[in-house]
Amino acid sequence: MTGAELKAIRSELGLSQALFAWNLGVAGGKTSIYRWEHGHYPVPETVAKLARCMLELDRDVERRG
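^ thats the sequence. predicted structure below, dont judge the formating
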């Protein structure tokens, strides 16, 4: 997953970097999210998987009303 893809997921979820980091359990907080989104570091696979799961769950909830 690219940083742009991670940012797109976060934006679709309507979360700040800090809240997104908290939901993902990221120890580095919003600083880590910022660094991944801006390509300073690659997005860890575990973070990518969790972010995709969060997005799918959010979409499923929206579909079900």
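Helices lie at 3-13, 17-24, 29-37, 45-64.
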